[in-house]
Amino acid sequence: MSQMSPPIVRTVAELRARVMAWRAAGELVGLAPTMGALHEGHLSLIRLAKTHAHRAVASLFVNPTQFGPNEDFEAYPRSEARDAELLASVGCDLLYAPSVSEMYPQGFATTVSVRGVSEPLDGAARPGHFAGVATVVTKLLLRCGPDLAVFGEKDYQQLQVIRRLVRDLDIPVEILGAPTARAEDGLALSSRNAYLTADERSAAPELHRALAAAVEQLHAGRSAAAVEADAMDRLKAAGFSRVDYVEVRAVDDLARLGPGPVPGPARILGAAVLGKARLIDNLAV
Ligand code: AMP
Fold first, then answer.
1. pTM over 0.90
2. Atom 7, ligand 1: which residue's CA is nearest?
3. Cα of 157 from ligand 1 centre, angstroms
């Protein structure tokens, strides 16, 4: 077996055979779903999986149903050979990389949609996105049957949508959230950062800085509405062409908080467009 790549399987039958053999031998299995173009944030998910399970499986699938008609499905970066090498370097045991027709065979007709938590924020800005995510994650969990699955806090709303659907559908898996991996200047690592020009890359950390400043102001007792408005102004001044939202929300169901001072634990989430990239980030309050 090559050291340069974990074994790659492309069908649900091969995936299940591998995972069932491990579980029959008493080994715990962790899954980390990805869309590839891997970076340190993705690798941190595999490392986290390996601290909680004997085996780590990564999936690589650019899921067409979670992209809107005017979004970047075609342009999304793809680099499977390089991704496989990176996965080997962190001890990933198996890569599941199905085709679109393997995931959605002729006649596929089912959608998983999660009410409530998937409706505001990115759910409002990207209609249909979370139904696409919820459907593919449900399929990946049922196909792989892992003991645990790891998702990044970088996509905080997605993490809460997945926690909700796993509870609602009684899927026997433990969901782990991994902290956001950042560049030294604070920018959350993302496959979409590849779209940024050099000038845009210099402006991009302003999203993290604006959220961090907002957290400080909230801790000082300023109202959520004032803090949100300041952060949005700051992003526009830094050259972001569109700010979809900066909002303080409840930690689990992402219910609206405010407009006044925030009484307890919360999450502040932001999304804004810089050049060709739509960047998202969030921090604990
Ligand atoms: P993606 O390939 O962008 O769909 O992301 C796959 C998984 O990696 C998701 O669970 C993301 O939340 C997670 N992820 C992406 N970027 C980061 C990051 N900077 N830090 C931690 N996790 C991340």
1. yes
2. 34
3. 12
Q: Which CATH superfamily is domain 8-178 in?
A: HUPs (3.40.50.620)
User: 259 C-alpha vs ligand 1 centroid, how far in Å?
Assistant: 30
Ligand 1 neighbourhood includes 181 CB (under 6 angstroms): yes
Domain borders along the chain are 8-178, 191-284
- Ligand 1 contacts CB of residue 161 (under 6 A): no
Beta-carbon contacts of residue 92 (< 8 Å; ≥ 6 apart): 6, 46, 56, 57, 58
Q: Quick check: helix, strand or coil at residue 53?
A: coil
The one-letter amino acid at 58: A
39, 42, 52, 129: the active-site residue: 42
pLDDT digits (tens, 9 = 90+) for 138-173: 999 999 999 999 999 999 999 999 999 999 999 999
Cβ atoms 149, 176 nearer than 8 A: yes
Out of 3.30.1300.10, 3.90.226.10, 3.40.50.300, 1.10.443.10, the CATH code matching 191-284 is: 3.30.1300.10
For ligand 1, atom 10: residue with the closest CA: 151
